[in-house]
Model the fold of this input.
Amino acid sequence: GDSVTQMEGPVTLSEEAFLTINCTYTATGYPSLFWYVQYPGEGLQLLLKATKADDKGSNKGFEATYRKETTSFHLEKGSVQVSDSAVYFCALSDQGYSTLTFGKGTMLLVSP
Amino acid sequence: SAVISQKPSRDICQRGTSLTIQCQVDSQVTMMFWYRQQPGQSLTLIATANQGSEATYESGFVIDKFPISRPNLTFSTLTVSNMSPEDSSIYLCSVEGGSLYGYNEQFFGPGTRLTVL
Done:
């Protein structure tokens, strides 16, 4: 079955540091890939997505590229802010299906 | 994006009681989903709720424990029945974006934080 593997957290960074959160996946078809963010005490928000190989999703300075050859969708940001502190979830939706398969989430803590 | 609200936002309940969580969407959507997020864990899909048909439950979840209603295209409820402390979780509803916002894209409600004593 489908699965998503994320790096374990927490990831602790200083403000303006470079961020990478690794995500790899296993799927039978050609999935769509997503990053969701959950700020403390809130629900999930879609951060970015990519629907086919080599697509790059981007939003709020975050980027992730759909790499079919390595089955990866790593999240990056060049300069993190304290307000980026949250839990980040990588997820996939297999072709033709609406349900999402989530990774376990990675907590990001950014200090001033 | 679709705007989704949930009621209640949080509740503290006694063991053995039941709680019904409401999910309201600002537009008509075909597919709605209910997830559970246990403390420190990822999201687990409970069931898919389509209007006019029985909900489809994932492995490990049964209708007697988590009955779902979907009376129209903008509303759904999830009931957590005969609760135990193990049911303490955040319960989230989500909707598929559909033709308006994109298939295979989901939007989530703010969640209902349930604590069972």
Q: What stands out?
A: The radius of gyration of chain B is 13 Å. The interface with chain A takes residues 1, 31, 33, 41-43, 45, 48, 92, 94, 96, 103-111 of chain B (CB under 8 Å). Helices of chain B lie at 98-101.
